[in-house]
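Fill in residues.
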């Protein structure tokens, strides 16, 4: 008898032990943010990991199945995922998370977007026609997005609304403290000149006062060409312009970086662009710790 009551109790309480909000994210930074805010209330999956270029992935069946069950889809947007998300959405056929519905959260729509082109020549292959989509590289953007996201989660799961709001408040408090500490450390980086592989870092540059002087890609999304690299070598070679770093993300080939670095003496540096992009970048806090550690290590 007691056993029956116990089993009945388990059956009644089992659903409570499950997450209340199924979150599917396009990029790992938004998965990390959803967990910071929602904690055990959320079950998360990310379409991409830090060693994949979020511009290009395959709409695999396992991703379609996860998106089909999601209550909330969080993506950077600004056409970062244009190559695969529309197909994934159409195959998943989940109206809750379609753009325009409250289950779709486009992070870039909440922050001031940089590099919005006056006109776009798609024939040249520019992959940032809506402005630069790599918004996570400035922690002030994450601050704004966290506030909006906590509100959206509360809206989608009203029974736990207070817990999401509180999760948001707690995160913001810790995040603001972290930003102040990062800014204390980063002062010496202001004005440093950087060559970047892809325009992945404009928000980081804007935050830290780094100056982008060249890109290894001739146009965003077009891999470095021999011609373009020779031009850079002329620019930064002997008696040429100076720069402090050649920066690339973990999913970019190191070939062009190292080629230019060897010939110019400018240090080539890998920076994690999102959570999981280096051994140390295990959450949003350690992501920015590690970015600064790496920049400052070259500096010292
Ligand atoms: Zn890009």
């Amino acid at each position: 008898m007691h056993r029956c009551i116990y089993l009945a109790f388990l059956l009644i309480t089992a659903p409570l032990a499950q997450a209340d909000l199924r979150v599917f994210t396009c990029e790992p930074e938004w998965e990390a943010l959803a967990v910071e805010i929602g904690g055990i209330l959320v079950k998360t999956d990310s379409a991409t990991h830090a060693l994949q270029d979020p511009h290009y992935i395959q709409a695999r069946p396992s991703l379609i199945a996860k998106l089909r069950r999601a209550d909330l889809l969080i993506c950077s947007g600004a056409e970062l995922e244009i190559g695969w998300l529309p197909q994934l959405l159409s195959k998943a056929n989940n109206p809750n998370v379609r753009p325009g519905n409250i289950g779709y959260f486009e992070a870039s729509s909440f922050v001031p977007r940089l590099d919005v082109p006056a006109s776009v020549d798609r024939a040249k292959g520019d992959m940032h026609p809506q402005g630069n989509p790599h918004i996570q590289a400035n922690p002030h953007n994450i601050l704004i997005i966290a506030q909006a996201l906590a509100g959206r989660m509360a809206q989608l799961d009203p029974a736990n609304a207070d817990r999401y709001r509180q999760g948001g408040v707690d995160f913001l408090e810790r995040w603001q403290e972290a930003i102040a500490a990062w800014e204390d450390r980063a002062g010496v980086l202001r004005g440093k000149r950087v060559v970047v592989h892809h325009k992945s870092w404009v928000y980081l540059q804007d935050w830290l006062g780094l100056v982008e002087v060249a890109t290894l890609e001739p146009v965003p999304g077009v891999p470095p060409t021999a011609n373009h690299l020779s031009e850079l070598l002329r620019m930064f070679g002997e008696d040429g312009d100076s720069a402090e770093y050649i920066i690339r993300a973990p999913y970019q080939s190191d070939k062009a970086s190292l080629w230019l670095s060897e010939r110019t003496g400018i240090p080539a540096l890998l920076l994690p662009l999102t959570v999981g992009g280096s051994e140390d970048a295990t959450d949003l806090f350690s992501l920015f710790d590690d970015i600064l550690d790496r920049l400052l290590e070259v500096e010292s």
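The beta strands are 21-25, 42-46, 72-75, 104-106, 193-196, 211-215, 245-248, 268-270.
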